[in-house]
């Protein structure tokens, strides 16, 4: 493990950025540290681990949040592929490196599917689940991101060219030698999402560890009927609905944190 010691937080819990070398590929993650119980937090497409910085600060010291930049995102390297098995193997590698026999696993969107598939395939490693606004069936499309610019001469120019999408991509803006761009390749996101699309009811129903499903009632990814079905069909599953869109943890950080904290306190 290579630890840079680089902090990304100026107050509260200051995470340490570290990385694993997996077959010549870098897998970067933030470890918020502390004495608390472990919580592995998996972000969605276009995002990265630091999207959970607010949650980590609010849950400390009772909970130690570990937030990877999943393959092809943020500071992690670009992989040869974006298979379901690959994402799960990456999560297991982080747990193994940190010597964690099990953890609560939280995931948003892509990360939510990764979380419940991790539980399905390795139930002994997942003590509880928090799934943010993703269904047991995924059938949406990310091809819109292919229109995003590869490079722009300045940050302001990049934001202007991204248009309305820029507000969702603040953490992903990077300066490179040849200009400003995103911390991922849009074509990789489309490839990755094509592996997520499908019917995953078997994975969602495979385990009965405690679970919290958080639904943004204005989401265009998960509708209320599907969320209710997920909660009613799986044992020991709570449903919380908040007045947000798809990115609940960013749109309503206080409500999201309160729901997660209440759930965790019941474990």
Explain the overall architecture:
The protein is α/β, with parallel strands linked by helices. The chain has helices spanning 53-59, 84-97, 110-121, 155-162, 186-196, 201-204, 224-233, 248-251, 253-265, and strands at 2-3, 16-22, 25-31, 37-42, 63-68, 103-108, 126-132, 137-138, 173-176, 179-182, 198-199, 211-216, 237-242. A nine-stranded mixed β-sheet has the order 1-2-3-5-4-6-7-12-13, sandwiched between helices. Strands 8-11 form a two-stranded antiparallel ribbon. The chain has one domain (2-138, 198-265): 3-Layer(aba) Sandwich (Rossmann fold). It is globular.
What would you say about this model in short?
The chain has 267 residues and is an alpha/beta fold.
**Structural class of the helices, strands and pairings?**
alpha/beta
Percent range of helical residues: 25-40%
| Strand order in the sheet with the most strands | 1-2-3-5-4-6-7-12-13
Q: How is the CATH topology named?
A: Rossmann fold
Order of helices and strands: EEEEHEHEHEEHEEHEHEHEHH
- Report the average pLDDT across residues: 94
Inertia-based shape: globular
Question: Strand-residue fraction?
Answer: 15-25%
- The count of β-strands is 13
Integer tally of domains: 1
How far from one another are the termini? 31 Å
Q: What CATH architecture do you see? A: 3-Layer(aba) Sandwich
How many helix segments? 9
């Amino acid at each position: 493990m290579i630890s840079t010691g680089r902090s990304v937080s100026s107050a509260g819990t200051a995470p340490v950025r570290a990385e694993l070398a997996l077959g010549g590929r870098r897998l970067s993650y933030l470890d918020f540290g502390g004495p608390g119980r472990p919580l592995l937090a998996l972000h969605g497409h276009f995002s990265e681990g630091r999207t959970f910085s607010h949650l980590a600060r609010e849950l400390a010291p009772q909970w130690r949040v570990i937030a990877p930049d999943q393959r092809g995102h943020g500071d992690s390297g670009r992989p040869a592929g974006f298979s379901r098995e690959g994402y799960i193997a990456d999560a297991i590698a982080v747990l193994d490196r940190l010597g964690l026999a099990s953890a609560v696993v939280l995931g948003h969107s892509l990360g939510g599917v990764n979380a419940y598939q991790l539980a399905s395939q390795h139930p002994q490693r997942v003590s509880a689940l928090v799934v943010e606004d993703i269904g047991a069936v995924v059938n949406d499309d990310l091809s819109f991101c292919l229109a995003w610019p590869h490079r722009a001469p300045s940050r302001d120019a990049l934001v202007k060219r991204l248009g309305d999408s820029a507000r969702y991509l603040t953490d992903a803006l990077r300066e490179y030698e040849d200009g400003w761009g995103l911390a991922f390749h849009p074509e990789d996101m489309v490839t990755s999402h094509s592996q997520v699309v499908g019917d995953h009811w078997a994975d969602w129903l495979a385990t009965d560890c405690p679970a919290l499903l958080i639904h943004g009632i204005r989401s265009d990814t998960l509708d209320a009927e599907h969320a209710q079905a997920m909660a009613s069909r799986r044992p020991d599953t709570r449903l919380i609905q908040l007045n947000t869109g798809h990115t609940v943890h960013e749109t309503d950080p206080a409500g999201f944190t309160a729901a997660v904290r209440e759930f965790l306190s019941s474990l």
